[in-house]
Amino acid sequence: MLVAQVIVPRPVYGTYSYQVPGSFQNLVRIGVRVQVPFAGQVLVGCVISLSNEAEIDPENPEIQSSGKVFRYKEIENVFEDFSFLSADDLELISQISRYYLVSPGEVLSLFLPRYQPKSSKLYALNFDLTTCLDRIPRSRKKLRQGLIRFAMGNESSIGRNELLEKTCWGSGLLRDALKLDILNEINRLPELEMCRDADFDLSRDTWPALSKQQKNAYLAITNSSETVQYLQGVTGSGKTEVYLNLIYDCLRLNKNIIFLVPEIALTPQFVNIFKERFGDQVAVFHSKINDRQKYLEWKLLLEGRKRVVIGARSALFSPVPDLGLIILDEEGESTYKQDTSPFYDARRVAEKKAQILGAKLIMGSATPSLNAWSRIESGEISCQKMNQRHNQFDLPKISLIDLKKEFKAGNYSVFSGELKNKMQREINKGNQVILFVNRRGHSSFVMCRKCSHTLTCPRCDLSLTYHDSDVLHCHYCGFFVPKPSECPKCQSKAIKQFGLGTQKVESFFRKEFPGVSMARLDTDLSSKKGYTESVLSKMRNKEIQVLIGTQMISKGLDFEDITLVGILNPDSLVKMGDFSARERAFQLFVQIAGRCGRSSKKGEVVLQTYNPEQKIYEQLCGYEVAQFVEQELNIREALQFPPYTRLVYIESNSELQEKALQNLQRLYKILIEISKGLIQEVYEPQPCPIPKINRRYRYRCVIKAKESSEFWQELEDVRKNYRSMNRTRTKFLVDPESLL
Ligand code: ADP
Ligand code: ZN
Ligand code: ZN
Predict the structure, then answer these.
(1) What is the gyration radius of the CA atoms in the chain, in angstroms?
(2) Closest CA to 396 of 126, 547, 606, 575
């Protein structure tokens, strides 16, 4: 009896065994998707191994006397005649599961398509024509004629539509034919139609010639055999051309490529360049692609018809056979971290994947993460540098504006006098301007000026955010109410929104620059289908002169007429009170600054702050990436934060407040027990910075341990065996970037 060991997409450790029924014996292989019954549900899992087990004899008196006849449940369905997962993928799943303390099943969900294709039907004659005709009553003329026409075609089997066309039957007649048992209906599962035509006819003769610094970087990377390498190039240095040439070489060696970007919607230029250079071999994965499209693209990859994947972090899990190269652009971006379950960091997973498959990983950025930087410093990763912008264009000059002075001088606009003048100047010249605002509607909370009562979400106790439509939203759970006309506490009418959001900047802009074409880009708007693309194409066609946006607009944009960037409220980012806040802020500012002056037109950046004396701004103005990073690393080392230690964030939540806390305290005791002498620090259980989300109370504790510590093995065991208390849930988050 053939038995398959299956992992299912559930937060459970361990594999489950199912008998393989005879009809599936030829189909079930390692890596195949199967439908199985599991705890009263039907799940799609994946076969990870097969074994032959002795048939269990239900007549066996021994088993009967024990009162239990053990039977395996059966695999209920197989979806395709090929595997999405290779043995290497299974190894990667296991490593991710161990490192991030997530069950293999949850990791598996990243690797399997969600779409289930319908199997198509094939039809064949069950007997020779004469025997078939004997079975059909003489009166059924249409049935007989149709059958004869089909038999004359001499095809062993054909699809349903073809059959109906040939026979001139409707579905009623087909049903009758099946009832008479003259036709055999066969299920046909999707199969791979491998691409056989392997001639390489791509030419790069028409590509732009590499500059000297690009050529040096390209050759150094090509000639190195190291698995992980870094390309550090200032914004606009031309990293893309280097990547494209590396990809070309890889294709020529008959190997395939994954190219990761932090955010795919914002990088249409990238996608266009890739399509220009590599034609229809490029598979693009963005969030708007639906499950079926993704399934079909994955199949094309397996068939070798598409060979270059480009997408955000999840594209890493596309089934790319013969992977030769992973390129990860803008390595410092925190969007490479997935902060919903299963938690993972694409940078780390990409490295593991490259190691397992023997592929190369090239990471690139102007501002490496502290983690990458410290590995470069220690010589663990080699790094190629490109310190010049392409064509020797200058990096834009960054100037600081002291907002305290503006306020004293009676300027209550969101634009300082200097920024306003410069905006006017560039607009008059016909150039383009970008205004960066931290986060959508971030601090536009609603407060009563009289009693300072702030409106909060009843489910999360968080400030509600004001939106244009006079509605107040909770950004965490989606709760919303109409904006009240008076304060619920003191009934004063002086209730008003505060803070700076993109919408507020927009309304100031419209007042102060009437008639100037502008657009806004933030996560509220970009979720509308086609919106982002349309704004970007209007930017390109110069239908828009001013773009106001959040984090979203910091990446990738490459427009030659952008000459001015305004950074309006950087302080809230820098002062977030998180161990990684400054790193992320610096990264972001360099990226945003990099959006201007990318052509012969000079670029300029104006940063408005209440704290111009902060070191980080000084380092930003001088593009002192190395100094900034070294200083940050010193602070991290002194406080023993990553990359000098690793953190685990453990959260317990429940609708019952005391249960949430009890559950965490119980777990905390276990952790203290196992960690004696092995860890750096355990922060005691405390309410999360957001203590309640969507009716659930949240408590957390944070553990700090050295990478090398034996503690990790112990923690893995705890994770596997710990059962959360009734009505509570426990979450483990490994290597969190933020403790807020
Ligand atoms: P980065 O990714 O390093 O910020 P890009 O790859 O976007 O920089 O390149 C910046 C600009 O320089 C782009 O407009 C690009 O077309 C141009 N460029 C880069 N390399 C070359 C080259 N070898 N020849 C011509 N133009 C180039
Ligand atoms: Zn809420
Ligand atoms: Zn009030």
Answers:
(1) 31
(2) 606
- The sign of the CA dihedral 30, 36, 41, 44 is positive
Per-residue 3-state assignment (H helix, E strand, C coil) for 399-437: EEEEHHHHHHCCCCCCCCHHHHHHHHHHHHCCCEEEEEC
- Could you tell me which of 301, 316, 247, 322 has the C-alpha nearest to residue 277? 247
Q: Which residue in the block uniquely carries the two structure tokens 């009240």?
A: 484
Q: Parallel, antiparallel, or unpaired for β 681-693 and 696-705?
A: antiparallel
Give the tens place of pLDDT for each residue, 260-302.
Answer: 998 887 777 788 999 999 999 999 998 778 999 999 999 999 9
Q: Has residue 167 got a pLDDT over 60?
A: yes
Q: What is the DSSP secondary structure assignment for residue 261, as one 8-state letter?
A: -
Per the CB < 8 A criterion, the answer to whether 234 and 386 are in contact is yes
Ligand 1 proximal residues by C-beta, below 6 Å: 208-211, 214, 233, 235-241, 390, 558, 598
Which ligand is nearest the CA of 488, by number?
3
CA pair distance 29, 12, nearest whole angstrom: 22
Would you say 591 and 434 are in contact if contact means Cβ atoms under 8 Å apart? no
Q: Whole-angstrom Cα distance, residue 276 to residue 308?
A: 13
Q: What's the whole-model pTM score?
A: 0.85
Sheet hosting strand 73-74, strand order edge to edge: 73-74, 16-19, 2-7, 41-52, 33-38, 77-78
Nearest residue (CA) to ligand 1, atom 25: 208
Ordered DSSP codes for 449-467: TTT--B-B-TTT--B-EEE
Beta-carbon contacts of 340 under 8 Å, excluding residues fewer than 6 positions away, are none
Residues near 335 by beta carbon (within 8 Å), at least 6 away in sequence: 262, 263, 312, 313
- Ligand 1 pocket test: which of 210, 241, 389, 395 has the largest number of ligand atoms within 8 Å of its C-beta? 241
The bridge status of strand 546-549 relative to strand 432-436 is parallel
Q: To the nearest 5 percent, what fractions of the chain are helix, strand and coil? A: 35, 25, 40
- Strands 604-609, 397-402: pairing kind: parallel
* 389, 392, 398, 399: CA torsion to nearest 10: 180
Phi, psi of 220 (to 5 degrees): -60, -40
Can you list the alpha helix ranges (DSSP code H) found in 491-646?
Answer: 502-512, 523-526, 531-540, 571-574, 581-593, 615-621, 625-639
Complete DSSP assignment for 553-587: GGSS---TTEEEEEE---HHHHTS-STTHHHHHHH
Whole-number Å distance, alpha carbon 476 to ligand 2 midpoint, is 5
Q: Nearest bound ligand to CA 494?
A: 3
Q: What is the mean pLDDT of the chain?
A: 89
Measured CA to CA, the distance from residue 312 to residue 359 in angstroms comes to: 19
Which of the residue ranges 34-48, 54-68, 120-134, 357-371 would you say has the lowest mean pLDDT? Answer: 54-68
3-state secondary structure 291-331: HHHHHHHHHHHHCCCCCEEEECHHHHHCCCCCEEEEEEECC
> Which residues touch 161 (CB under 8 Å, ≥6 apart)?
none
Question: b or e along 277-294 (b: 16 or more beta carbons within 10 Å of the residue's beta carbon)?
Answer: bbeebbbbbbeebeeeeb
